[in-house]
Amino acid sequence: MGVSAQTDEVPKNNPYTAASDVERGARLFAANCAPCHGPKGNGGRGANLARPRLPRADDDKALFLVIRDGILNTEMPGAWGMTDHEMWQTAAFVHTLGRVGPEQVPGDPIAGAAVLRSKGCIRCHTIGTEGGRMGPPLTEIGDRRSATYLKSLLLDPPSFLPEDFSMVEVVTTAGHRVTGIVLNEDTYSIQVRDLTGDLHSFWKQELTTLEKHADRTPMPSFRGQLSDRELEDLVAYLVSLRRAQ
Ligand code: HEC
Ligand code: HEC
Fold first, then answer.
1. Could you tell me the distance, in angstroms and rounded to a whole number, from the CA of residue 136 to the centre of ligand 2?
2. pTM of whole model > 0.85?
3. Which atom of ligand 2 is nearest to the CA of 217?
4. What does the pLDDT read at residue 136?
5. CB of 120 shorter than 6 A to ligand 1
6. Are the C-beta atoms of 181 and 134 separated by less than 8 Å?
7. Where would you tag: which of 178, 203, 236, 237 has the fewest CB atoms within 10 A of its CB?
8. CATH number listed for the domain at residues 167-213
9. Which residues in the chain come in under a pLDDT of 70?
10. N-terminal to C-terminal alpha carbon distance within the chain
């Protein structure tokens, strides 16, 4: 006994997940982790923790061990100054970062799945293994976004532009025109995914036009395209798309 590095004594599930634990965890996180992981956990010198799935800490126990022992040969240190209790509280807070809790939403998710199909969302978004790749995958969207967020986004996409999507229109010297989102760009070249999901790569010197529209998005607004009922059902469906537990 007394060998704290033993892993099989660590409980599988976090024993401290009450609201007061999460609150205390938030303060511990701000003091110990935020310098590297950012105040909201979305990364900096340390990894982005505000994601539904942490590859190095995929369950409670693994998360606890990462916090306690650090990750060998990386900048992620072990938290020597904290008690087990405090580490679990920090873990409880980390757990909330990339996840929005299950919400009670009024719509019917099954009807919502049908709305999604009829509105062509699948053309641009993957759900599971099906769908287009123009927009981000929605497979686990319910873990990342709240119902309120999703509802507003469907009505007014430009207000929710993620930083890593930039819409662009290019015309080549040969007169070929492509509209899409920027995947990569450097001084000499640009890679664009068009609205059908196809990839294009251009040398900038072969373009006559390269217009960026940071304020525009290929994500269409569905304002006026959905009844209140359809919108509610669709949001209920999106919220239900979660990582299998
Ligand atoms: C000195 C900077 C630093 C501090 C302080 C720090 N981390 Fe990290 N952390 C890192 C780095 C860098 C990585 C990525 C390591 C790698 O995999 O290369 C990381 C990785 C992680 C991971 C794994 C993420 C994944 O992708 O699976 C978790 C979880 C984590 N840190 C939690 C914490 C918590 C909680 C604290 C506070 C108790 C903390 N870290 C403090 C730098 C730091
Ligand atoms: C023409 C392609 C296209 C269609 C059709 C489309 N989307 Fe999108 N959607 C996008 C793109 C591209 C983004 C991300 C970039 C952006 O916002 O500019 C996006 C973003 C989103 C996001 C935010 C994802 C996140 O990670 O925050 C959600 C949710 C979403 N779309 C749902 C839908 C739903 C539901 C429908 C159908 C009612 C739909 N989209 C139809 C292209 C499309």
1. 7
2. no
3. 18
4. 83
5. no
6. yes
7. 203
8. 2.30.30.100
9. 1-8, 43-44, 99-103, 143-144, 160-165, 244-245
10. 33
Which pLDDT value is given to residue 43? 67
- 170-193 tens-digit pLDDT: 999 999 999 888 888 888 999 988
What is the pLDDT at residue 244?
A: 65
Q: Where in the chain is the domain with CATH 1.10.760.10?
A: 19-97, 109-159+219-240
Which residues lie closer than 8 Å to 237 by C-beta, 6 or more apart?
107, 109, 110, 111, 112, 113, 115, 116
What residues form DSSP beta bridges with 31?
none
Q: Cα of 146 to ligand 1 centre, how many Å?
A: 26
Task: Give dist(CA 232, CA 109) in Å, integer.
Answer: 9
CA of 186 to the centre of ligand 2 (A): 26
So what's the pLDDT on residue 208?
93
User: Encoding tokens for residue 159?
Assistant: 């207000």
H or E element, residue 168: strand 167-172
Q: 19-97 sits in which CATH class?
A: mainly alpha
Ligand 2 environment, Cβ below 6 A: 116, 119-121, 123-125, 134-136, 138, 141, 145, 150, 153, 157, 161-162, 165, 181, 195, 217-220, 222, 234, 238
